[in-house]
Specification:
With 341 residues, the chain is α/β, with parallel strands linked by helices. 42% of the residues lie in helices and 18% in strands. Helix 2 (39-52) packs across helix 11, helix 5 crosses helix 6 (159-173) and helix 7 crosses helix 8. One of its GO terms (molecular function) is carbohydrate binding.
């Protein structure tokens, strides 16, 4: 779609610099897996990229965290002539045929949660399996003599949830490390034995934060001797903290988290959460859209042969939480204008 050249661009052209910016920008879509605080950092990364190169990003956070919302948005963007699509896939099994149709029209990459069987060109993110192994190590540290734990997560058909959960189970069982996704998921049965540890249950909430809290409230009543709760998605642990606080059990039950919600980082400082397996959504936003830009322009996007553009997880504990918080704050400053534009 043609756009008018701005006065600022004309000034740059007359000055003999920035001539490429007189061209229409590459326009891509960036679709998250829900409306969570986590994606604020991705927005900041995208805002920085929009300052660095001639790109416009249509950012969408599905209000109900449903694959139908993702699909409708992508269809709208394709109708408008979008140049590329980056997506955190909610349900890879059911969305993959549609994604293949998208990939036949424009460059397609995944971030955060993959659709490995699709024709996407790259996956930008951490190895969720590796992050699951890291969380399993945290459980070992907290419960060296064994114990019981429950996982709370939005959905178990999302690739990131599948791999994180399997990494935890494999780590506690002492199984060899898998260099790639291990394949079959351990069924979501009750009382899964993992060596000295027992995964009592895996509770899902469909991406609903209020249901995540009610799940936590329920298991605290149903299993009064439970040793540990693990929140697997960004909003899961804040919901757990709220339920544990209401039950007057802060500091009495162990909590392990994923991602870097503000409340989680404060709970790590306060000693109520032991650790979180943090991602780098800022880089997800920046790198995913930069790769699409290069693909559209016919430049080398730097995609490895295995298609994984690795952005490793960081284990955040009391020892490094302040340093990690400063990094997040610096990232957000780069994109302060994004949400208001």
């Amino acid at each position: 779609m043609k756009r008018f050249v701005t006065v600022a661009t004309m000034v740059l052209m007359l000055a003999g610099i920035g001539s490429a910016w007189a061209e229409d920008p590459v326009t891509v879509a960036f679709i998250s897996n829900g409306p969570y605080q986590f994606w604020t950092y991705a927005a900041a990364g995208i805002a920085q990229l929009e300052q660095d190169i001639n790109i416009k990003v249509e950012f969408f956070k599905p209000p109900q965290a449903m694959l139908e919302e993702q699909k409708r948005f992508i269809e709208t963007m394709l109708a408008k002539g979008i140049d590329g699509v980056a997506i955190s896939v909610i349900d890879p099994d059911n969305l993959t045929p549609f994604l293949d149709e998208v990939a036949a029209q424009v460059p397609l990459v995944c971030f955060d949660s993959d659709a490995p069987a699709s024709k996407r060109l790259a996956y930008i993110g951490m190895s969720n399996y590796a992050a699951g192994r890291m969380a399993g190590e945290a459980i070992r540290e907290l419960l060296p003599d064994g114990g019981t734990f429950i996982i709370i997560v939005g959905r178990l058909d999302a690739q990131n949830a599948i791999e994180r959960r399997q990494g935890i189970i494999d780590e506690l069982r002492g199984l060899p490390y898998q260099s790639s996704y291990p394949g079959e998921m351990t069924p979501a049965d009750p009382n899964i034995e993992c060596g000295k540890w027992t995964l009592v249950d895996t509770r899902t909430d469909g991406g609903d934060e209020s249901r995540a809290k009610s799940n936590a409230e329920d298991v605290l009543i149903k299993y009064p001797d439970l040793d540990l709760l693990l929140g697997m998605w960004s909003y899961s642990t804040p919901a757990i903290i709220s339920a544990v606080r209401d039950a007057d059990k802060l500091g009495k039950i162990h909590i392990v988290a994923f991602d870097q919600e503000t409340e989680v980082l404060q709970a790590i400082r306060d000693g109520y959460v032991y650790a979180t397996m943090a991602q780098d959504p800022y880089t997800y936003g920046y790198k995913s859209c930069e790769i699409l830009y290069k693909l559209v322009k016919g430049e080398d996007p730097g995609i490895p042969e295995n298609t994984l553009v690795d952005v490793p997880a960081v284990k955040v504990t009391q020892a490094n939480v302040d340093e990690f918080q400063k990094k997040l704050e610096s990232q957000l400053k780069a994109g302060e204008f994004f949400e208001q534009r």
